[in-house]
Design goal:
This protein has 344 residues and is of the alpha/beta class. The protein has two domains: 218 residues, 3-Layer(aba) Sandwich (Rossmann fold); 97 residues, 3-Layer(aba) Sandwich (Rossmann fold). 42% of the residues lie in helices and 15% in strands. The chain is built from 15 helices and ten strands. The longest helix is centred in the first third of the chain and has 14 residues.
């Protein structure tokens, strides 16, 4: 049977209203990639759940197929979201697929070019505000409370319904839940949805390690961060909409939420790329946390099955690589010049 997207595959597990009309780009079904070299180094059985291979390059497509499908079913004509980038591209793509108008609010100067380009390419009306992501979210909540415009941020409950399907896929491939699940935490919808999914699927429960960036770690600090700053733009959020649920998920799983420095996140990005998996900086946060906690001895991964969720593709935020890349060496177009350079 041809794969038709996650609502077709897992619809029986999703709490979606009867009026839902499926809008899909065949999202989901992303690979669970074994990492043999890193497994040996860490002493565990390590897998990367590579959500960057969803249609718009991030995990947001899982929740967006559900949110847009519900919005279409109730007759919405316009959708809106606040975004640091990935939600914008996903909302714009699924709205385009459904023939809806899409509006995206972004914090001024705080969105990776690759993500902004996606939103524009899919036809979204992009508006920058002079404020943070949290300011943008407050505005879209207000306008959707006062108009028929549909909100498709992760506070939309149907986003969680779609996103929890990644838990199902992990269990289907491994045969059970892993021992540890490590993932980045920004607005906290994803950690919330994974935990909900594992509990519902009843194939075991992992311990969860959620990782924030040090410059945007309200759940670690215990209070909002008014001006979050981190190279990991996708998790540059100071007041997570689902913060309490994220803390509950970490606690219930006997796990925790920690913070990683930008330097460690970028180092983790480099390490993952060295084994063939290129992710955007925020997506490397979960692996950065795993490495740090393992080194400190505060996370025992020895002999365990560990899944690290990488939420977005490296092409979403390539500037961190290109800005540090020295211009390629230029040589004459002849064989001897090439031999002299490569040392063959």
């Amino acid at each position: 049977m041809t794969y038709q997207g996650l609502i077709h595959r897992y619809g029986q597990y999703l709490d979606l209203p009867a009026h839902t009309q499926i809008v899909s780009l065949n999202e989901g079904n992303t690979p669970l990639i074994p990492m043999p070299r890193l497994s040996r180094e860490l002493g565990c059985e390590l897998f990367i759940k590579f959500e960057g291979l969803n249609p718009t390059g991030s995990f947001k497509d899982r929740g967006m197929t559900a949110a847009i499908s519900e919005a279409v079913g109730r007759g919405a004509k316009t959708v809106i979201c606040a975004s640091t980038g990935n939600t914008a591209a996903s909302a714009a793509a699924y709205a385009a697929r459904a023939g809806l108008r899409s509006i995206v609010l972004i914090p001024e100067g705080k969105v990776a070019v690759g993500k902004l380009a996606g939103a524009i390419a899919y036809g979204a009306e992009v508006i920058q505000i002079q404020g943070s992501f949290d300011d943008a979210l407050s505005l879209v909540v207000e306008i959707t409370q006062k108009t028929p415009i549909a909100l498709v941020n992760s506070i939309n409950p149907y986003r969680i319904e779609g996103q929890k399907t990644s838990s199902f896929e992990i269990c289907d491939v491994l045969g059970s839940a892993p021992d540890w699940l490590c993932l980045p935490v920004g607005n906290a919808g994803n950690i919330t949805s994974y935990w909900a999914g594992f509990k519902q699927y009843q194939k075991g429960l992992p311990q969860i390690l959620g990782v924030q960036a040090e410059g945007a770690a309200p759940l670690v600090l215990g209070h909002p961060v008014e001006k979050p700053e981190t190279v990991a733009t996708a998790i540059r959020i100071g007041k997570p909409a689902r913060g309490e649920q994220a803390l509950e998920a970490a606690h219930e799983s006997n796990g925790r939420i920690i913070a990683a420095s930008d330097a460690k996140i970028l180092e983790a990005q480099h390490i993952l790329a060295s084994e063939g998996v290129w992710v955007e900086p925020a997506s490397a946060a979960g692996f950065a946390g795993l490495v740090a906690e393992t080194a400190k001895g505060t996370l025992d991964a020895k002999g365990k099955k560990v899944v690290v969720v990488c939420t977005g593709h490296g092409m979403k935020d390539p500037s961190i690589i290109t800005e540090s890349f020295e211009s390629p060496r230029v040589i004459p177009a002849n064989y001897q010049a090439l031999v002299d350079v490569v040392g063959a």
